[in-house]
Design a protein that fits this description.
Layout (H helix, E strand, L loop, with lengths): L10 H15 L4 H12 L6 E5 L5 H8 L3 E6 L2 H10 L4 E4 L12 E7 L8 H11 E12 L5 E2 L4 H12 L7 H11 L3 E12 L5 H13 L5 H17 L4 E11 L2
Parallel strand pairs: 1-2, 1-4, 2-3, 4-5
Antiparallel strand pairs: 5-8, 6-8, 7-8
Length: 257
Protein backbone atom coordinates (compact mmCIF):
# COMPACT_ATOMS: atom_id res chain seq x y z
CA UNK A 1 0.00 0.00 0.00
CA UNK A 2 1.51 3.31 -1.10
CA UNK A 3 2.14 5.95 1.54
CA UNK A 4 2.86 9.63 1.13
CA UNK A 5 6.57 10.03 1.90
CA UNK A 6 6.01 13.32 3.74
CA UNK A 7 2.90 12.59 5.79
CA UNK A 8 3.16 8.81 6.07
CA UNK A 9 -0.55 8.52 5.18
CA UNK A 10 -2.07 6.22 2.58
CA UNK A 11 -4.63 7.67 0.16
CA UNK A 12 -7.33 5.81 2.12
CA UNK A 13 -6.15 7.43 5.36
CA UNK A 14 -6.14 10.83 3.67
CA UNK A 15 -9.70 10.28 2.43
CA UNK A 16 -10.76 9.34 5.97
CA UNK A 17 -9.10 12.51 7.28
CA UNK A 18 -10.90 14.61 4.68
CA UNK A 19 -14.22 13.10 5.77
CA UNK A 20 -13.37 13.96 9.39
CA UNK A 21 -12.42 17.53 8.42
CA UNK A 22 -15.72 17.87 6.56
CA UNK A 23 -17.54 16.89 9.75
CA UNK A 24 -15.51 19.44 11.69
CA UNK A 25 -16.27 22.18 9.16
CA UNK A 26 -19.97 21.56 9.71
CA UNK A 27 -19.88 21.63 13.52
CA UNK A 28 -21.83 24.30 15.34
CA UNK A 29 -19.80 27.50 15.38
CA UNK A 30 -17.22 26.30 12.84
CA UNK A 31 -18.20 28.83 10.17
CA UNK A 32 -18.16 31.65 12.71
CA UNK A 33 -14.71 30.55 13.93
CA UNK A 34 -13.33 30.61 10.40
CA UNK A 35 -14.88 34.03 9.84
CA UNK A 36 -13.21 35.27 13.02
CA UNK A 37 -9.85 34.05 11.74
CA UNK A 38 -10.34 35.98 8.50
CA UNK A 39 -11.23 39.13 10.44
CA UNK A 40 -8.05 38.80 12.49
CA UNK A 41 -5.99 38.51 9.30
CA UNK A 42 -7.25 42.00 8.39
CA UNK A 43 -6.83 41.36 4.68
CA UNK A 44 -7.26 44.14 2.16
CA UNK A 45 -8.62 43.29 -1.30
CA UNK A 46 -5.92 41.59 -3.36
CA UNK A 47 -3.75 40.78 -0.34
CA UNK A 48 -1.70 37.59 -0.65
CA UNK A 49 -2.42 35.02 2.07
CA UNK A 50 -1.46 31.38 2.61
CA UNK A 51 -3.58 28.75 4.31
CA UNK A 52 -1.09 26.22 5.70
CA UNK A 53 -2.43 22.68 5.96
CA UNK A 54 -5.34 23.75 3.78
CA UNK A 55 -7.14 20.40 3.76
CA UNK A 56 -9.91 20.32 1.18
CA UNK A 57 -9.60 24.05 0.55
CA UNK A 58 -12.69 25.51 2.19
CA UNK A 59 -10.83 28.40 3.85
CA UNK A 60 -8.97 29.20 0.64
CA UNK A 61 -12.28 29.51 -1.20
CA UNK A 62 -13.83 31.62 1.54
CA UNK A 63 -10.88 34.02 1.71
CA UNK A 64 -10.80 34.31 -2.07
CA UNK A 65 -14.51 35.17 -2.00
CA UNK A 66 -13.59 38.09 0.26
CA UNK A 67 -11.12 39.37 -2.32
CA UNK A 68 -7.85 37.91 -1.01
CA UNK A 69 -5.29 36.19 -3.24
CA UNK A 70 -5.38 32.97 -1.24
CA UNK A 71 -3.09 29.99 -1.76
CA UNK A 72 -3.54 26.66 0.02
CA UNK A 73 -0.57 24.45 0.82
CA UNK A 74 -0.46 20.93 2.22
CA UNK A 75 2.28 18.27 2.21
CA UNK A 76 -0.19 15.56 1.16
CA UNK A 77 -0.48 15.28 -2.63
CA UNK A 78 -3.80 13.49 -2.32
CA UNK A 79 -5.17 16.28 -0.13
CA UNK A 80 -4.09 18.91 -2.66
CA UNK A 81 -5.69 16.92 -5.49
CA UNK A 82 -8.99 16.78 -3.61
CA UNK A 83 -8.83 20.50 -2.81
CA UNK A 84 -8.14 21.38 -6.44
CA UNK A 85 -10.99 19.14 -7.57
CA UNK A 86 -13.45 20.70 -5.16
CA UNK A 87 -12.27 24.28 -5.73
CA UNK A 88 -11.14 24.42 -9.38
CA UNK A 89 -10.76 28.21 -9.20
CA UNK A 90 -8.43 28.01 -6.19
CA UNK A 91 -4.64 27.87 -6.08
CA UNK A 92 -3.11 24.92 -4.25
CA UNK A 93 0.48 23.71 -3.89
CA UNK A 94 2.20 20.74 -2.28
CA UNK A 95 4.41 22.12 0.51
CA UNK A 96 4.89 21.79 4.25
CA UNK A 97 4.95 24.33 7.05
CA UNK A 98 8.75 24.31 7.23
CA UNK A 99 9.40 25.22 3.57
CA UNK A 100 6.72 27.44 2.10
CA UNK A 101 6.94 28.19 -1.65
CA UNK A 102 7.06 31.97 -1.27
CA UNK A 103 9.83 34.55 -1.35
CA UNK A 104 10.78 36.49 1.76
CA UNK A 105 8.27 39.12 2.86
CA UNK A 106 5.75 38.52 0.07
CA UNK A 107 2.59 37.66 2.03
CA UNK A 108 0.16 39.80 3.97
CA UNK A 109 -1.44 36.91 5.79
CA UNK A 110 -0.61 33.48 7.18
CA UNK A 111 -3.30 31.15 8.48
CA UNK A 112 -3.07 27.62 9.88
CA UNK A 113 -6.01 25.69 11.34
CA UNK A 114 -5.65 22.38 13.19
CA UNK A 115 -2.07 22.07 11.97
CA UNK A 116 0.47 22.98 14.65
CA UNK A 117 -0.43 20.04 16.91
CA UNK A 118 1.01 17.64 14.30
CA UNK A 119 4.29 19.52 13.90
CA UNK A 120 7.41 18.25 15.66
CA UNK A 121 8.96 21.74 15.66
CA UNK A 122 6.29 24.47 15.93
CA UNK A 123 8.94 27.14 16.57
CA UNK A 124 10.55 26.36 13.22
CA UNK A 125 7.18 26.71 11.48
CA UNK A 126 6.64 30.08 13.14
CA UNK A 127 10.07 31.15 11.93
CA UNK A 128 9.07 30.21 8.41
CA UNK A 129 5.85 32.18 8.82
CA UNK A 130 7.84 35.24 9.80
CA UNK A 131 10.08 34.79 6.76
CA UNK A 132 7.25 34.84 4.22
CA UNK A 133 5.22 37.60 5.89
CA UNK A 134 5.78 41.22 4.97
CA UNK A 135 6.24 43.77 7.77
CA UNK A 136 2.77 44.43 9.18
CA UNK A 137 1.54 41.06 7.92
CA UNK A 138 -0.82 39.10 10.13
CA UNK A 139 -0.63 35.52 11.40
CA UNK A 140 -3.59 33.52 12.75
CA UNK A 141 -3.43 30.03 14.27
CA UNK A 142 -6.53 27.98 15.10
CA UNK A 143 -6.30 24.80 17.14
CA UNK A 144 -7.33 22.82 20.19
CA UNK A 145 -5.67 21.67 23.37
CA UNK A 146 -5.85 17.88 23.33
CA UNK A 147 -5.81 17.72 27.13
CA UNK A 148 -8.89 19.94 27.34
CA UNK A 149 -11.78 17.60 26.48
CA UNK A 150 -14.57 17.96 29.05
CA UNK A 151 -16.67 14.78 29.22
CA UNK A 152 -19.35 13.81 31.70
CA UNK A 153 -18.97 10.24 32.90
CA UNK A 154 -19.72 8.06 35.88
CA UNK A 155 -15.99 7.29 36.13
CA UNK A 156 -14.08 10.57 36.21
CA UNK A 157 -10.69 8.92 36.83
CA UNK A 158 -11.06 6.62 33.81
CA UNK A 159 -12.18 9.55 31.67
CA UNK A 160 -9.09 11.55 32.65
CA UNK A 161 -6.90 8.56 31.79
CA UNK A 162 -8.53 8.22 28.37
CA UNK A 163 -8.20 11.92 27.54
CA UNK A 164 -4.60 12.16 28.68
CA UNK A 165 -3.59 8.93 26.93
CA UNK A 166 -5.09 10.17 23.66
CA UNK A 167 -3.34 13.52 24.05
CA UNK A 168 0.00 11.80 24.58
CA UNK A 169 -0.31 10.24 21.10
CA UNK A 170 -0.40 13.69 19.49
CA UNK A 171 2.94 15.20 18.43
CA UNK A 172 2.33 18.58 20.11
CA UNK A 173 -0.93 18.16 22.05
CA UNK A 174 -0.65 21.37 24.08
CA UNK A 175 0.92 23.67 21.50
CA UNK A 176 -1.95 26.18 21.75
CA UNK A 177 -0.76 26.97 25.28
CA UNK A 178 2.74 27.62 23.97
CA UNK A 179 1.80 29.54 20.83
CA UNK A 180 1.69 33.07 22.32
CA UNK A 181 5.12 32.57 23.86
CA UNK A 182 6.54 31.09 20.66
CA UNK A 183 5.28 34.07 18.69
CA UNK A 184 6.79 36.52 21.16
CA UNK A 185 10.08 34.60 21.06
CA UNK A 186 10.05 34.92 17.26
CA UNK A 187 9.64 38.68 17.51
CA UNK A 188 5.95 38.96 16.64
CA UNK A 189 3.93 41.79 18.19
CA UNK A 190 0.24 42.40 19.03
CA UNK A 191 -0.07 38.79 20.19
CA UNK A 192 -3.61 37.86 21.26
CA UNK A 193 -5.37 34.63 22.18
CA UNK A 194 -9.07 33.83 22.50
CA UNK A 195 -11.23 30.73 22.87
CA UNK A 196 -14.47 29.45 21.44
CA UNK A 197 -16.02 26.46 23.24
CA UNK A 198 -18.25 23.95 21.47
CA UNK A 199 -20.65 21.77 23.48
CA UNK A 200 -22.42 18.57 22.39
CA UNK A 201 -25.25 16.93 24.32
CA UNK A 202 -26.42 14.29 21.86
CA UNK A 203 -24.94 11.35 19.97
CA UNK A 204 -23.36 13.46 17.22
CA UNK A 205 -19.83 13.11 18.56
CA UNK A 206 -19.92 9.45 19.58
CA UNK A 207 -17.37 8.64 16.83
CA UNK A 208 -14.95 11.07 18.49
CA UNK A 209 -15.50 9.45 21.88
CA UNK A 210 -14.96 6.03 20.30
CA UNK A 211 -11.69 7.29 18.84
CA UNK A 212 -10.55 8.58 22.23
CA UNK A 213 -11.27 5.27 23.93
CA UNK A 214 -9.90 3.17 21.07
CA UNK A 215 -6.61 5.07 20.92
CA UNK A 216 -6.21 4.96 24.70
CA UNK A 217 -6.82 1.22 24.63
CA UNK A 218 -4.36 0.67 21.77
CA UNK A 219 -1.75 2.63 23.75
CA UNK A 220 -2.22 0.29 26.71
CA UNK A 221 -3.57 3.00 29.02
CA UNK A 222 -6.86 1.17 29.56
CA UNK A 223 -8.13 -2.37 29.01
CA UNK A 224 -10.52 -3.55 26.32
CA UNK A 225 -13.18 -4.05 28.99
CA UNK A 226 -12.71 -0.52 30.31
CA UNK A 227 -12.95 0.94 26.81
CA UNK A 228 -16.09 -1.05 26.01
CA UNK A 229 -17.76 -0.17 29.32
CA UNK A 230 -16.93 3.52 29.01
CA UNK A 231 -18.23 3.67 25.45
CA UNK A 232 -21.39 1.78 26.39
CA UNK A 233 -22.10 4.43 29.02
CA UNK A 234 -21.50 7.22 26.50
CA UNK A 235 -23.78 5.58 23.93
CA UNK A 236 -26.52 5.29 26.53
CA UNK A 237 -26.03 8.93 27.49
CA UNK A 238 -26.32 9.85 23.82
CA UNK A 239 -29.51 7.80 23.45
CA UNK A 240 -31.07 9.51 26.46
CA UNK A 241 -29.88 13.01 25.58
CA UNK A 242 -27.59 13.04 28.62
CA UNK A 243 -24.23 13.14 26.89
CA UNK A 244 -21.93 16.08 27.59
CA UNK A 245 -18.79 16.73 25.55
CA UNK A 246 -17.13 20.13 25.30
CA UNK A 247 -13.78 21.40 24.09
CA UNK A 248 -12.38 24.86 23.43
CA UNK A 249 -10.83 25.94 20.16
CA UNK A 250 -8.19 28.64 20.47
CA UNK A 251 -7.42 31.45 18.04
CA UNK A 252 -3.99 33.02 18.37
CA UNK A 253 -3.08 36.06 16.29
CA UNK A 254 -0.03 38.28 15.90
CA UNK A 255 1.64 40.86 13.67
CA UNK A 256 4.96 40.51 11.92
CA UNK A 257 6.92 43.68 12.84
Amino acid sequence: MDRNQTTGRTSEETDALIALLDVGDGMPGAAELRARSYDLLDLAPGAAVVDVGCGSGRAVAEMAAQGARAVGVDPDERMIAVAAGRRPDGEFRVADAYALPFADGTLRGYRAEKVFHILDDPARAIGEARRVLAPGGRLVLVGQDWDAFVIDSGDAALTRRIVHARADLVTAPRVVRRSPGLLLDAGFTDVTAEARTVVFTDATMLPLLADLAGKACAAGAISDAQAEGWLAEQRERGRRGRLFLAFPLFVTAATRP
